[in-house]
User: Fold this.
Amino acid sequence: MSLPRTCPHDVVTTESEYVRNIDALLLSTYTSAREPSLLELVRAARGAFPTVVSERLAALHMRWSTRPSDQGIEDPSSPELHALDFEWPFSTDTIARLLDWIGYRSVNLIGLPSVMLQLDPEADACLIERNPLVQARNHWLASRKNFRLGDILTLDLSSIPRRRVVAFDSPWYFGETVLWLLRAVELVEAGGEIGFSLYGESTRPTAPLEREEILTIASRIGDVELCEAELEYVTPRYEACALEAAGLPPLRRWRRGDFVRVTVGAKRARPLQLPLIAQPVPREPWITYRVGRQVVKLRRPNGRRLRDEAARVPFAPIEALGGWAYPSVSLRDELRGSIHLWTSRNQVAQVLDHDVVRQRLEALEKAAARGLSTKRWLSRYDWAGRQEEARAWRELLRVDLD
Ligand SMILES: C[S@@+](CC[C@H](N)C(=O)[O-])C[C@H]1O[C@@H](n2cnc3c(N)ncnc32)[C@H](O)[C@@H]1O
Assistant:
């Protein structure tokens, strides 16, 4: 097994230990509940992706039930959320709990658009967020002056006042969590509080060590309180599509994060030294297109442009997948590097002719902005001699879901 680039240690939980821990969690749920549902079992597995859980259930010969109420796509975001933007929204219960915790205190939020949206408009608050589509989804957010668009790791924070509370929900990787925590220290008042989401022990084999390290760093900032599985997420559409592609039901709200609260010491709210081991997730060069409700990402060519003039369709399925549907959302997935085109319905492709794909996406985006649906554009465009390409776009974009 290859190690993720953000791994903090040479020694990691081995694959067999990882599996043993998940098995133990599943077995204890099995004995405590008569006929556990897949949703209960996945929730009990402390962050293991449902495909990993279902593999373990099969290996342990454990049967599970499914309830219709546990499945379905309940994420209404438009434009849709995208795996490449690391977007996992909280459920309304969790947002309400976070609002209670913040109370009437001033707050800097990092990567928490759903909390910002529900705050009192008069609250002394600022949202730092990298994805401009967040504003397209919520026009009210766009009009707020306390919205800072930018990457928390590189944004100049000097003009953002420190506030009593800082809350963040970073992508669930060691380097990102540590680096966001260090930025949070620069945004909190002495004696204030930092709250953040922490992934469970089974998120990946290295997660137990990563968590230990993160909590150690947090304890150098202030007094730490850990509330297990306190944060509940709505399954984003792209993740529901990934589950379906893996042959599983699109489980609703399976993902839980721990909530870490750090009461910052009166004198300690100053920057800590960056630990060298905390590497951010590499920022990949993707071009983003809004095609109606959908968000389609095209990887920028690395050096020479891909150009196969003989190709009847300018993109093709990734061979190992045997179709467009991608059953993963993980950075560690070995196919991730071969993806050039990725939709918010978790459909992916490799590109054979970059320029043609770019032209089509630009045309689709313009048509959608004029109010023409993708389906209609695909039927109106002059595809003379290129019917195969038109069919491939229809399948890739899953116009059936529009
Ligand atoms: C895991 S999601 C958290 C969403 C949160 N649970 C909510 O309901 O509002 C991470 C959020 O941080 C944003 N984000 C990701 N990387 C970022 C970065 N480097 N700087 C600022 N925002 C970032 C994403 O666009 C996304 O909105």
About this structure: The chain has three domains: 15-70, 83-264, 286-401.
